[in-house]
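Database export, one record per block. Field names are fixed; values are copied verbatim from the stored entry.
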Amino acid sequence: MVPGVAPVTGEAETEAAPISLRDELLGPKHRPDPWAHRRGEPRTFAFFWTMFVLIAVAGSVMWVARYAALTSGAYAPAARIMLMVVGVGMTLLWPMVRLSQQSPPRPVIGHVLVDTWIVLVPVQMVLWPLVFLAGWPTNIVLGVAGNLLAWGALTGGVLALALAGPPLANPRDPRLRSRTGWMLLMVVLTLGAPILDQLLRLVRSPTVDPGTLAMLSPVTSVATLTGRGMLGPQNPISPAQWQTMLGVGLAGACVWVLAFVRDRIGNRRAEA
């Protein structure tokens, strides 16, 4: 006790103490949890993503059921809508959720890999039954599965690369502007090709093959592979479309390598 200074007791002692000492005085039950928003992860994320996929399936079926009987032919547009919604959720909703949260503990790569697995497995589970429900050829379903797998890998790679940077915990940290930039990148990757396609149609430019350009988005690629309207797939997957899907997958692999390198560098700096 310092002579001439009255001792501080009770609640005043808690407020006057340093943060670390205050936490000790409050005890573990009242100590602030910096990871409260990630409590239960990845189970919480898995639950909400699975619910999103199920709602997409149920919503598309109910939409089609209002206008036609649910035969295999009528189920084709419902399946197409469902896949488009899931594709948008995979490339926009998933990054938006994770980029809005505090940075996960290092190493970041492991957390994003788990997220990628959680996102891709339910998508594949609702996709393959379309061979029987919608009567789609197996090679078409295989192509759509590979296409969504490639876009999921690319999205996960970009997200891993974004989160592997400096850890962010303060919502007023000016470095959060970089998160906005990464989210804008995902918007461009998702919607850039359809917007460019419409602009080229307005000027009637034949410089880019519309079929190839449509494959550069998880939204328009579904319709390109599975047909339009009430009709199912009409044409086999072309070699150019397979090459475009392979290119998206290779781009995702390259981004994952960059994310791994950035994460390792961040780990070494944190340990130093």
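Remark 1: The chain has two domains: 1-32, 37-271.
Remark 2: Residues 239-271 form the longest helix (33 residues).
End of record.
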